[in-house]
Write a structure and sequence with these properties.
Helix content is 5%, strand content 33%. It is mainly β and 220 residues long. The chain is globular, with a radius of gyration of 20 Å. The relative contact order is 0.08.
Length: 220
Amino acid sequence: MSVRIHPTAIIEAGVQIGAGTSVWDHVHIRHSTRIGEQCVVGGKTYIAYNVRIGDRVKINAFVYVCTAVTIEDGVMISAGTIFTNDRFPRATTPDLKQLRPSEPDEHTLPTLVRAGATIGAGSVIGNDLVIGRFAMVGMGSLVTRSVPDFHLAIGSPAASVGCVCRCGQLLRRFAPPVASVEQIACVACRRRYEVRGTVVTELTELTAPDVDRALALRQA
């Protein structure tokens, strides 16, 4: 599989792009970034230097990915998402006489997006945090703290309101009290999960009768 790069894209020196990846119009990828196989980078997206992106990642149009961001395999980053890496940014020195350098320093903080996660359109992602495996961030969210695995986080600032399956189906909403333990069946794909309070753990795949029972309970 060959790499497809639109003629208007700017790819700087030292960028590594895996087989089967497509880079669309007016994308700018800075030096020393590494992008895996079978990815899609949508038009007008900017990816800074030394960013690490896994395989089969979909990045929609108008996304800003700054230095110190790592994106694992199978992540979906929807249009207009903005990553940040400096909690207290300033343009100049305190006397306003010199621009601060753009290179990473002690104020540059990392962000990790774990495998299978989805970030909704128009979200702003803070720094020094982790978005967990198969987590889902709702559109327009402002993420200021880490999102656990399989959690659905929405709002400004974003808060966990429920949990989702690997396939994206909503499993349940969190509501007080959250100390209980239960097993939840995904009616869409037959996967099963244990939820202890707000901690979500994958279990074995469901059988057809399990799915029928889960559907009956949901419809009751």
